[in-house]
Amino acid sequence: MSLRLLFLDELKGYAKSKVMIVLWFGLPLLSLLIYFLQPNTEGVPISFLVGLLVSSIGGTLSGIMLSTSIVSEKNRHVYDLFLIRPVRRSSLLLAKFFAVYMCLVVAVVISLIFGLIIDEFTVGLSEYFLNETFESLIISMSSMAITCSIGIFFGVLVSSVPVAAILSVYLGSQLSSIILLPTFFIVTLNPVILALTLGISITSIIMSINMYLFSRQQF
Amino acid sequence: MTDICIEFNNVSKKYKTLLALDNISFNIQKGDIFGYIGPNGAGKTTTIKILVGLIRDFQGRVNLYGKDISINREEFHNIIGYHPQEAGFQVWRTVDHCLKTFGRLSGLSSEYLENRIQEILELINLSDVRDKKIVHLSGGMFQKLRLGQALLHKPEILVLDEPLSGLDPQMRYQFKKIIKKLAKSGITILFSSHILSDVQDIANKIGILNEGKIMRIGSPEELQSSFHIGNLIEIIFAKNTPLCDGIEAISDVENVEKVKNNKQLIYLKSNVDIDFSISQIMNKVLQQKCRIRSISLVKPSLEEVYLKYVGGETD
């Protein structure tokens, strides 16, 4: 009950925030800009590039947003008023994670639709393009899930907003690219299955650590 | 049988090397307005956080209506309302949204909350800003909102941590009025403060805390009478009449001090019979046909009592 309520509440909050406006409208516009600046993508679909762009910029932004909002809310004792009620500490973190992730998924979908529209008008959509786009979507979403969980990790662990932001920028986005590494060395690996497996397992592990650390913190 | 509502039994709390609470024990009865005073860092907030369940790692036992709060915390949430000293709100919320969220998290239905929020906002005079974003509220309104969220579920016990700090005089007056109104409705109130006048105005029972230890507990009158700053008698004479001479000669008197043209302070020796001393002084006054307005035994102010227990100095 409280998780659902907190999730919807956080979703409302993030949806209203300026960062999400940037993600939802800024990134699709950026994909358009990319096309007009560099129409020759050497056979790589725009939708694929857009997917990478969103996962990189969107993931980093979300990581920063999560880490800094948690640190700031901890410092302002925002959680006190939640924790005196029958609310699990883990629900607070999970609600934040799912709310931001949901917003990111919306941003990715909007951007990819933009990318696909451009591809349709320029080179025409083919099965290859759609497969590439699907692959790009799965990798982006797995990578963003890891970035978000790392953002929460720094939010829980650190007590300074700038430090949390810096760590999220430099470590969050770097660590999330771990899901792509094995495909560079083992070419037979299916990048979609690998990204899904690693994305879900790494995110679950980091979120479990986050919840454990958060439950031990003194408010 | 006494109607004990809150009971702290040998409660201690240590933060790494700092002993924040040192084996404190006290109880609060149903309907009490308990003023918990002490200097900053005395352990007031730690005590309160233990009571509301924000600190769970402590030694000792805390009971609410005889039941240990560590055993089934959710049961006690419905009983307690908590106004934190410094808790913030997510500023993107409106006042209405904020109260709705906390109400729902407290298990109240949306239909019930519609009316309840209106009642609360009327009580705390925030009806006009129901749809305003929290970020646009003033400090006093913010403080009222903290109180509002604590009252949503009609708690039997209200725990207020420094509810009057940072408020301007007008807002302090309003806040005290609200607290008194709530107390009249039968709610047991525990509130902390480091401002004595606030405690004196509101509380019927006071606990003085210093360096994690309970120094004294009692009603304001009990605290004042338990603390003898020396037996002191004040005589105020009628205007333009001479003061009384020769009081120093009375064997019980240690010293006489002229404070103003018409006021004398008479310090008595310790362990004297005050009633007998007063009658001796009165005889002297009558012998000299002095015209007096009043003669009274001076009691220490609550401030003097407080300063004695927290180690400060009186002037």
Task: Describe what this molecule looks like in 3D.
The complex is a heterodimer of chains A (219) and B (315). Chain A is an all-alpha fold and 219 residues long. Chain A has one domain. Chain A has nine helices and no strands. Chain A has helices spanning 2-16, 18-37, 46-75, 80-83, 89-122, 127-157, 161-176, 181-185, 191-215. The longest helix of chain A has 34 residues, at 89-122. The model of chain A has no long low-confidence stretch (mean pLDDT 84). Chain B has ten helices and 14 strands. In chain B, a hairpin with a 2-residue loop joins strand 1 (4-15) and strand 2. Chain B has two domains: 4-219, P-loop containing nucleotide triphosphate hydrolases (Rossmann fold); 232-299, Alpha-Beta Plaits (2-Layer Sandwich). In chain B, the strands form three sheets. Chain B has a six-stranded mixed beta sheet, with helices on both faces. In chain B, helix 3 (95-105) packs across helix 4 (110-123). Chain B is of the alpha/beta class. The A-B interface holds A 2, 5-6, 9, 13, 16-17, 73, 76-78, 80-87, 218-219 and B 15, 49, 52-55, 57, 74, 77, 80, 82, 84, 86-90, 92-93, 101-102, 104-107, 149.
* Helix fraction bin of chain B: 25-40%
Provide mean pLDDT of chain B, rounded. Answer: 87
Uncertain runs of chain B: none
Q: What is the annotated CATH architecture of the largest domain in chain B?
A: 3-Layer(aba) Sandwich
Q: Give me the oligomer status.
A: heterodimer
Any idea of the CATH class of the largest domain in chain B? Alpha Beta
Largest interface: A-B, 21 and 26 residues
One letter per element, helices H and strands E, the order of chain B comes to EEEHEEHEHHHEHEHEEHEEEHEH
Largest sheet of chain A: none
- Give the rounded overall mean pLDDT of chain A: 84
Quantity of strands of chain B, as a count? 14
CATH topology of the largest domain in chain B: Rossmann fold
Low-confidence stretches of chain A: none
Q: Considering the protein shown, what is the CATH homologous superfamily of the largest domain in chain B? A: P-loop containing nucleotide triphosphate hydrolases
Count of domain modules of chain A = 1
Range of strand content of chain A: under 5%
Task: Measure the end-to-end span of chain A.
Answer: 23 Å
Largest sheet, spatial ordering of strands of chain B: 6-7-8-3-9-10
Approximately what portion of the residues of chain B adopt beta-strand conformation? 25-35%
Number of helices of chain A: 9
Total helix count of chain B? 10
